[in-house]
Automatic annotation (TrEMBL):
Cross-referenced Pfam families: GlutR_N, Shikimate_DH
Keyword Electron transport recorded: no
Family: Belongs to the glutamyl-tRNA reductase family.
Species in which this protein is naturally found: Isoptericola peretonis
Gene3D superfamilies (alphabetical): Glutamyl-tRNA reductase, N-terminal domain (3.30.460.30), NAD(P)-binding Rossmann-like Domain (3.40.50.720)
Annotated protein name in UniProt: Glutamyl-tRNA reductase
InterPro entries: 4pyrrol_synth_GluRdtase, 4pyrrol_synth_GluRdtase_N, GluRdtase_CS, GluRdtase_N_sf, NAD(P)-bd_dom_sf, Shikm_DH/Glu-tRNA_Rdtase
NADP keyword on record: yes
GO molecular function: glutamyl-tRNA reductase activity
Domain notes: Possesses an unusual extended V-shaped dimeric structure with each monomer consisting of three distinct domains arranged along a curved 'spinal' alpha-helix. The N-terminal catalytic domain specifically recognizes the glutamate moiety of the substrate. The second domain is the NADPH-binding domain, and the third C-terminal domain is responsible for dimerization.
Lineage start: Bacteria, Bacillati, Actinomycetota, Actinomycetes, Micrococcales
Length: 469
């Protein structure tokens, strides 16, 4: 088996390109397992700043199966997202073998995040594996890979100060919004967010994290809105209020946190023209904001102007129409803004975290590649047992001849003593053989991995040339 990953993230692409690429790609992992023979398993990580596909490929050393899988995935992503196949192939960073392991562990630890050290990604990695199980696409190797990634992330969190500051995309967004909120709204004198009225759009993991972060800041006036009808259940489970009329809720709000990602979702079988139409539908459009501002102005009465509105859009597939920023009295922060304001992290803290990640990845690869070595060691033990049996038979036969010359026969204790001596002698020589055989098997396994990895750089180029032909 060869591990293969295709990654598109904020580090390689701008957020607009990433949004186009990942639109509708949630089903790719399930489809590729069902339609590409060499692919034995897949797990998809899709977050606000990355789309990654991890594959367990039954690949020969020459890498044809890996090349085929990569081309196939590029075609599927192109079909689901509306980009061309060559654009899809060119957008992915392809990794194989040990590179896959170290990259996933790096991602799970928050070292590859827009906000370095954010802890939300750890939960997203866990949910990716849960979703793969539900889809029936995971494999034994991917199960072990993702579970080890989660354990490594926990080690980074407990053994370094990387996650101690509570860094996250949500926290960064609220920090930016807070600069504008606290001196223009009825916040508490102690700097808390008491008196800040918030409308939350969405009911997913980021919505839950947003409620927790708002409460930590002292905000106790949160209403949740969902186009999917989940607002009531979310509100009951999180101790907030549901909002049935979005425009009315906005008219009375100081801050909107939108993280539904609903604009990027679509079911299978949606026609291309309907996909294009759906891509224009924002969860929060300019018309709704304008109407809410008119209501706010009417409610303000003789006041010079209604209270300003801060909108925080945390969705990759923009929940909020960017033109909302042009509405008077509205400030819009999106992921592009957050990326530009992401704080730096102390180098020594990052270095400690990376050492944990690199060490864990090396241990995982040693274990994974060691399976071939273990098979060789088992074969060596089997051979040794056969040698013991043959030598014991021969030694007992010689002993019987010697005793027969004196008119005696060997008893059970004589046979046991011979067997112990032979087994001790054979096994004393076995340790050095085990070390040598295991080292040779590991070297061959690494060489096979290296042969595939060496050709990985050709995969994307080959896919592009195939499209051109």
């Amino acid at each position: 088996m060869v591990l293969l990953s295709l990654t598109a993230s904020h580090r390689e692409l701008d957020l607009d390109a990433l949004e186009r690429l990942s639109t509708g790609s949630g089903s790719v992992g399930r489809v590729v397992v069902g339609s590409c023979g060499p692919v034995q398993g897949s797990v998809v990580i899709s977050t606000c700043n990355r789309f990654e596909l991890y594959l367990d490929v039954d690949a020969p050393v020459h890498g044809d199966a890996v090349r085929h899988a990569t081309r196939h995935v590029a075609a599927l992503v192109a079909a689901s997202s509306g980009v061309t196949q060559d654009v899809a192939a060119d957008s992915f960073t392809v990794r194989t073998g040990p590179e896959v392991t170290e990259h996933l562990f790096t991602v799970a630890a928050g070292l590859d995040s827009m906000v370095v050290g954010e802890r939300e990604i750890a939960g997203q990695v866990k949910r990716a594996l849960v979703d793969a199980r539900a889809d029936g696409t995971t494999s034994k190797t991917l199960e072990l890979l993702f579970q080890t990634a989660s354990r490594t992330s926990k080690r980074v969190g407990t053994q370094t100060e990387l996650g101690a500051a509570g860094r996250s995309v949500v926290a960064l967004g609220l920090d930016l919004a807070g600069r504008d909120l606290l001196h223009t709204r009825g916040a508490g004198d102690d700097g808390s967010w008491r008196g800040v009225r918030v409308v939350l759009i969405g009911t997913g993991s980021y919505a839950g994290a947003s409620v927790a972060a708002l409460r930590a800041r002292g905000c106790d006036d949160v209403r949740v809105y969902s186009r999917s009808g989940r607002a009531e259940a979310f509100a009951e489970g999180h101790g907030v209020e549901p909002a049935r009329d979005l425009v009315a809720a906005l008219a009375d709000a100081d801050l909107v946190v939108s993280c539904s990602g609903a604009r990027g979702r679509r079911g299978p079988g949606v026609a291309a023209d309907r996909r294009a139409e759906a891509s224009l539908e924002y969860v929060l459009d300019t018309a709704a904001v304008v109407r809410s501002r008119e209501r706010a102005a009417a409610a303000a009465g003789d006041e010079p102007e209604p209270r300003p509105l801060v909108v925080l859009d945390l969705a990759l597939h923009r929940d909020v129409d960017p033109r909302v920023a042009d509405v008077e009295g509205v400030l819009l922060y999106d992921l592009g803004t957050l990326k530009a304001h992401a704080p730096a992290t102390a180098t020594d803290v990052v270095d400690r975290a990376r050492r944990i990640v690199v060490g864990a990845a090396a241990d995982f690869e040693e274990t994974r590649l060691g399976r071939a070595a273990d098979a060789a060691v088992v074969a060596l033990f089997d051979d040794a047992e056969e040698r013991v049996r043959q030598e014991v038979d021969a030694a007992v036969e010689r002993l019987a001849d010697e005793l027969a010359a004196r008119g005696e026969t060997p008893d059970e204790s004589d046979v046991d003593a011979v067997a112990r001596d032979v087994r001790k002698r054979v096994h004393s020589a076995l340790h050095a053989q085990i070390v040598a055989v295991r080292a040779d098997a590991l070297a061959r396994a690494r060489a096979e991995e290296a042969a595939v990895v060496a050709r990985a750089e050709q995969l994307v180029t080959d896919a592009e040339h195939a499209v051109e032909r």
